């Protein structure tokens, strides 16, 4: 501690003076006992300045005064060949790990860019829309989107303090153009969580059901695609198709399977050739009304729950990934309406906490499946099936036009697949914004 109070100029001392000071401090008794033998010869290096720090000198002096056994040289241990080999392996492993962590991300990016460009050139050469290759599809499906969706569902269900609600809900409303004037409760303070805000009910009368139309829109959203579904492959968007058999699963009865007709024709209830299968796909954006309704009066007979992926169903992804609706988790209800076969499917998506069907309390979606990301089932027919209206003692489960069916805990997609007369005409166009209760089509010549 003394060295902190000595000026820097005092550090440069003559070697002779320094030794004299040390001898006087550490050996006073020896100096008194020694006889006077005349003048001592001056040290040879007395005139040479030496720069020494006092703290360094004190530590050196303390080490000299240490016991002798601490300064004895320790015997050298013989090296162990197995330990040396293990150390060499650890060094090699650490070097390769550092190399991979540094250069692997860059290599993956370069490989991805090359694969993307090659797939683009293949699509342009074949005159097809720019879609994902098999490799790109597998990589996308390998992302932990279900884990992310479950975390988002948990976060959306968390209680939000009233002081933060105007800021969080206000930001969400401005970002996704939410129209709160139609909500039953337009005040932000009414909703305890984001999930409640997503699934907000509407005021009575803000959605008028068109009673003249045979089929109305089941949800607020954007029309992705519509048209005939008479072939085995139907379009999810323009130019990008998916298999109707993979989407719905096997036929309901053995008689339908053994009829010898194609899958689409075997679905029809009428075999006189007067009807045709049609489809309509409606996408619900994050800012839309997240509850969905019945588009017509119909009676469901079977519920199938396909526990698939939770990929994004946005229009851009739907136009890029073929068979998207067959890969994603979905809840499918098949039944009958006045014109024949009718199916209603709610397709899950990324960040959709769950799909709730009000009449089906046993349905559980977005369930934990472990960390087996990217591992698809060996067959698309792996699903949970529930036969409805089986017990005669229970009241039959039927839907009227405009009845509330369920809700998404985030935006997703509704797919309608139905049988109708051949003179059925759609009243919509692709890309159109549509709301609950508005007409989807009409039957030409009918009043």
TrEMBL record:
Gene Ontology terms: cellular component: mitochondrial inner membrane
InterPro entries attached to this UniProt entry: PS_Dcarbxylase, PSD-B, PSD_type1_euk
Positions carrying Pyruvic acid (Ser): 412
Region (Disordered): 62-83
Pfam families recorded: PS_Dcarbxylase
Protein name as it appears in the record: Phosphatidylserine decarboxylase proenzyme, mitochondrial
Cofactor: pyruvate
Keyword terms, alphabetized: Decarboxylase, Lipid biosynthesis, Lipid metabolism, Lyase, Membrane, Mitochondrion, Mitochondrion inner membrane, Phospholipid biosynthesis, Phospholipid metabolism, Pyruvate, Transmembrane, Transmembrane helix, Zymogen
Source organism: Drosophila erecta (Fruit fly)
UniProt xrefs under NCBIfam families: PS_decarb (TIGR00163)
The protein's annotated pathway: Phospholipid metabolism; phosphatidylethanolamine biosynthesis; phosphatidylethanolamine from CDP-diacylglycerol: step 2/2; Lipid metabolism
Mitochondrial intermembrane side stretches: 122-447
Active site positions, chain numbering: 220 (charge relay system), 293 (charge relay system), 412 (charge relay system), 412 (schiff-base intermediate with substrate)
UniProt EC number: 4.1.1.65
Function: Catalyzes the formation of phosphatidylethanolamine (PtdEtn) from phosphatidylserine (PtdSer). Plays a central role in phospholipid metabolism and in the interorganelle trafficking of phosphatidylserine. May be involved in lipid droplet biogenesis at the endoplasmic reticulum membrane.
GO molecular function: phosphatidylserine decarboxylase activity
Family stated for the protein in its record: Belongs to the phosphatidylserine decarboxylase family. PSD-B subfamily. Eukaryotic type I sub-subfamily.
GO biological process: phosphatidylethanolamine biosynthetic process; protein autoprocessing
Posttranslational modification: Is synthesized initially as an inactive proenzyme. Formation of the active enzyme involves a self-maturation process in which the active site pyruvoyl group is generated from an internal serine residue via an autocatalytic post-translational modification. Two non-identical subunits are generated from the proenzyme in this reaction, and the pyruvate is formed at the N-terminus of the alpha chain, which is derived from the carboxyl end of the proenzyme.
């Amino acid at each position: 501690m003394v060295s902190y109070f000595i000026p820097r100029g005092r550090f440069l001392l003559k070697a002779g003076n320094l030794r004299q000071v040390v001898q006087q401090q550490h050996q006073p008794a020896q100096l008194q006992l020694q006889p006077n033998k005349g003048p001592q010869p001056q040290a040879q290096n007395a005139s040479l300045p030496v720069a020494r720090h006092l703290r360094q000198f004190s530590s050196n002096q303390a080490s000299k005064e240490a016991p002798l056994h601490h300064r004895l040289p320790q015997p050298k241990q013989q090296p162990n060949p197995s330990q040396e080999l293990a150390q060499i392996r650890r060094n090699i492993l650490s070097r390769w790990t550092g190399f991979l962590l540094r250069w692997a991300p860059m290599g993956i990016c370069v490989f991805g860019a090359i694969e993307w460009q090659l797939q683009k050139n293949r699509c342009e050469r074949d005159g097809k829309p720019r879609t994902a290759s098999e490799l790109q599809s597998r990589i996308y499906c390998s992302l932990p989107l279900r884990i992310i969706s479950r975390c988002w569902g948990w976060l959306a269900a968390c209680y939000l303090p009233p002081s933060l609600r105007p800021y969080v809900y206000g930001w969400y409303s401005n970002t996704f153009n939410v129209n709160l004037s139609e909500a039953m409760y337009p005040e932000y303070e009414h909703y305890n969580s984001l999930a409640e805000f997503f699934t907000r009910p509407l005021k009575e009368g803000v959605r008028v059901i068109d009673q003249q139309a045979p089929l109305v829109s089941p949800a607020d959203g954007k029309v992705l695609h519509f048209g005939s579904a008479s072939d085995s492959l139907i379009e999810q968007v323009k130019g990008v198709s998916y298999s109707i058999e993979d989407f719905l699963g096997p036929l309901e009865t053995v008689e339908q399977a053994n009829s010898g007709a194609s899958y689409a024709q075997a679905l029809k209830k009428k075999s006189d050739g007067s009807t045709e299968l049609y489809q309509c796909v409606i996408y619900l954006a994050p800012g839309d009304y997240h509850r969905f309704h019945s588009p017509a009066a119909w009676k469901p007979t079977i519920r199938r729950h396909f526990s698939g992926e939770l990929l994004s169903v946005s229009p851009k992804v739907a136009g890029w990934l073929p068979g998207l609706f067959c890969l994603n988790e979905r809840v499918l209800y098949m039944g009958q309406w006045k014109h024949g076969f009718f199916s209603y499917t709610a397709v899950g998506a990324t960040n959709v906490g769950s799909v709730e069907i009000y009449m089906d309390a046993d349905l559980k979606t977005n369930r934990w499946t472990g960390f087996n990301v990217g591992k698809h089932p060996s067959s698309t027919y792996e699903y949970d099936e529930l036969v409805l209206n089986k017990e005669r003692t229970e009241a039959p489960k039927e839907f009227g036009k405009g009845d509330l069916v369920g809700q998404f805990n985030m935006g997703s997609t509704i797919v309608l697949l139905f049988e109708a007369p051949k003179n059925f005409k759609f009243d919509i166009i692709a890309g159109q914004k549509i709301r609950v209760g508005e007409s989807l089509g009409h039957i030409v010549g009918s009043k």
